[in-house]
Automatic annotation (TrEMBL):
Keyword Transport: no
Pfam family, one: Aldo_ket_red
Alphabetic keyword roster: Oxidoreductase
Protein name in the entry: NADP-dependent oxidoreductase domain-containing protein
Source species: Hericium alpestre
Amino acid sequence: MVQKTAKFGGTASDVVVAKVGHGLMMMTWKPTPVPDEQCFEAIKAGLDGLDSLPAGTKMLINSAEFYGMSSPTLNLELVAKFFEKHPEYVDKAFLSVKGGLTEKLSPDASPEGLRRSVDNINEKLRGKKRMDLFEPARVDPNYSIEHTMTELSKLISKGKFDHIGLSEVSAQTIARANKVLPVAGVEIEVSPWSYTQETKDVIATCKELGIAVAAYSGFLTEGDFRRKYTRFQADVMKHNFITVNALKAIADKKNITPAQLCIAWVGHLGDHVIPLPGSSRKDRTLGNFAGGEVDLSEEDLDEIAKVLETHPIKGSRIIYLVPLKEAWLSGVRDWTAAQRGAYANDLTRFQLVAVTDNLNKSKGVISLIIRGTDI
């Protein structure tokens, strides 16, 4: 039974959601998307869990304009089909959507780019579910965050969506953005695999400003492209498995899964932190929600902290030697050498950075660097 809740912030401070949200990315962002009906059952499992919560409580559902391989908007189309078939769930969902990227997944915060993205999202949703919150997926270095917030506020005034969120941003950027218009939520990676000082600063700033943190990541399933990060590669994992096994031992003592322990740990980082695990199966959704209900004692939290301090995770969000057929992850398939070099030389601002050369390309592979936030 779901009992814990959280609140969004800023202009959405009256929105109460279940403590655990639902990320939809891996339903469609893979060579072979998950069958619609399986996805629908996974989504319904979470929404049905709201029945034990006060009336009006919603579940955070997270999508994006680019979560598709054969078609970038495949995830949005899935969302539209779900609510078309199950309109009784519309009022139970708080839908956040990331956008604001070009076809090559470069950030575009120009007035035209933001408007085009928002209109495209609404077109794909077909009026079956309103976009409650829009997030620029990455900061565009060509425009100030103040400019971006101002342009998005204009789109809100035109009725395009209701609230503004940010994604993969620094604490400083959040503070600047919030001065223009109150930010409702910030989406970042938070997990035992990714708990840097930068992450801690974002969580602290959001608490100070009354902003919700949608914390994605956790343990990865088979087929998740993030398994290619160097932190999950065989040689690095020899070290990281020490941490994994230590966390598993803690989970075993509490009769929960390691994934549920991670979800519970993330949730304990603050009342404003909303774990956002992904799921494309009903049983996994139910397991994720159960993780959000787990109470961790001070002793548990101290034990986890000691594990992470004693055995810090090695590796990073870097992907090496990705087959070109998977280069849809960043849209770099058609980049010129100059474009790749320009991105590779500015690792602080871009999430997806190609660092390949003709030799690697001739071998049918490409290397990607994944960066988390802006500066």
